[in-house]
Amino acid sequence: MPRDPRQIQLEIDAARESLAATLDEIAYRGSPNRLKAQGQVAAQRWLESPAGKATIGAIGVLVTFVVVQRIRHRRR
């Protein structure tokens, strides 16, 4: 039994709308500006956490140590 052309057109329209919604979602999820903002928020949260503060402190101590060693090495 042949299908009704109106029914076929409705199915095509529904598929087109579904595809458009999917493409909009992909565009939103992959937006460079949104991803950048999301990364900045995540980095800020981590830097404010105890682990982030400890890491920054350890890096500061390491940099200070390296600078002092280079100064000592130049004086010799």
Describe this entry's structure for a reader:
It is a single chain. With 76 residues, the protein is mainly α. The chain is 89% helix and 0% strand. The mean pLDDT is 95.
Would you report the number of β strands?
A: 0
Helix content: over 70%
One letter per element, helices H and strands E, the order comes to: HHH
User: Termini, distance in Å?
Assistant: 97 Å
Main β-sheet, in a few words? none
How many alpha or pi helices?
3
**Radius of gyration, in angstroms, nearest whole number:** 29 Å
Provide the β-strand percentage band: under 5%
* Shape call: rod-shaped
List keywords for this structure.
76 residues, mainly alpha, 3 helices
Describe the structure in brief.
The chain has 76 residues and is mainly alpha-helical. It has 3 helices and no strands.
Secondary structure blueprint with pairings:
Blueprint (H helix, E strand, L loop, with lengths): L4 H25 L2 H17 L1 H26 L1
